[in-house]
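C-alpha cells incoming
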C-alpha cells in the first residue's frame, strides 16, 4: 500500500488501495488496477515481440545454414554418367554375354546408354540453373531435401499433392521410366527434367 495524490482532484495522502477518493469519490482502486493491467499487457506484448524476433532470427539462421550446405555442382560429364550406370548394368551385359545372346548384349548396352544420357541431361539442367541463379538453385535443392525427408518419414509419396488437381495419388518418376520414355519418343519426352507424376490428371513436375 502506498499514499498517492488523487488523479482526479489532487488530494494528497490517499491510499492507492482505497476504493474511492474521500474527497471527490474517484475510483482509486479500480483506476490503479486498470493501469496495472495495462502495464502487464504491455509487458507481455514486449516479451511476445521479443520471442517472435528471436524465433525469426533462429529460423533465418537455420535456413541460411541449410542453404550453405548446398554447394555449386561440378560440371557434368557423360563419361561419369556412363561409368556410374555401367556398374549397375555390367551384370546384365555379362549375363547376356555368357548366354551368348547378342540381342541381349546390344539391348542392355543401348538401354545403359539411354539411362546414362538421361541422367547426364538432368545434371546439365541442374548445373546450368546453378550457374544462372545459384541462390534459386540452393532454395530448390533445400526444398527437395525437405520433401525427401517428409516422404521418408511418412513412408511414401502419398503425402504429396498434385499442384493441379490436389490428388495425393502421386508417384516419383524413376530414372528407368524416364529413360524408357526417352527411348520411345526421344528428346520430346515429357518426363525429361520431371520428378513426380500425378496418377489422377497426369500432370508432371
Amino acid at each position: 500500500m502506498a499514499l498517492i495524490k488523487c488523479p482526479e482532484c489532487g488530494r494528497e495522502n490517499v491510499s492507492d488501495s482505497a476504493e474511492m477518493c474521500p474527497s471527490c469519490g474517484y475510483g482509486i482502486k479500480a483506476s490503479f488496477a486498470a493501469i496495472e493491467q495495462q502495464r502487464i499487457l504491455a509487458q507481455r506484448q514486449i516479451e511476445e515481440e521479443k520471442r517472435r524476433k528471436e524465433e525469426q532470427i533462429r529460423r533465418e539462421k537455420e535456413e541460411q545454414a541449410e542453404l550453405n550446405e548446398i554447394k555449386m555442382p561440378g560440371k557434368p560429364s557423360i563419361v561419369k554418367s556412363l561409368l556410374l550406370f555401367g556398374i549397375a548394368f555390367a551384370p546384365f551385359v555379362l549375363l547376356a554375354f555368357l548366354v551368348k545372346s547378342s540381342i541381349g548384349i546390344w539391348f542392355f548396352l543401348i538401354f545403359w546408354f539411354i539411362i546414362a544420357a538421361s541422367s547426364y541431361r538432368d545434371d546439365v539442367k541442374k548445373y546450368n540453373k546453378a550457374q544462372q541463379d545459384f541462390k534459386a538453385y540452393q532454395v530448390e535443392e533445400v526444398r527437395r531435401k525437405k520433401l525427401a525427408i517428409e516422404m521418408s518419414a511418412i513412408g511414401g509419396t502419398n503425402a504429396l499433392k498434385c499442384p493441379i488437381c490436389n490428388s495425393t495419388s502421386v508417384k516419383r518418376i524413376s530414372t528407368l521410366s524416364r529413360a524408357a520414355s526417352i527411348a520411345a519418343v526421344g528428346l520430346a519426352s515429357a518426363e525429361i527434367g520431371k520428378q513426380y507424376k500425378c496418377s489422377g490428371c497426369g500432370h508432371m513436375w
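note: The first strand starts at residue 3 and ends at 4.
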